[in-house]
Amino acid sequence: MAHISPELLGILRCPVTGSTLELDGDELVANTPDATGTAPRYSLTEGIPVMLRPADVATAPAQETPTA
Asked: Which of 3, 7, 32, 58 would bridge 17 by S-S if both were Cys, CB 3.0 to 4.6 A apart?
């Protein structure tokens, strides 16, 4: 399970609904549903919230893995 400080969690807001977020396993979940009726979810990468709108994640370019 990822760790996010309570202070940071108190500041973060969903970029889609503007609502507060809560930690659910390794994701942040909005406390208010969006226009489709589902609560947006945001992944955590190495403990860092990826606060892209779900539609933006689908169109974002894949990150390249550095090679040695």
From this structure: 32
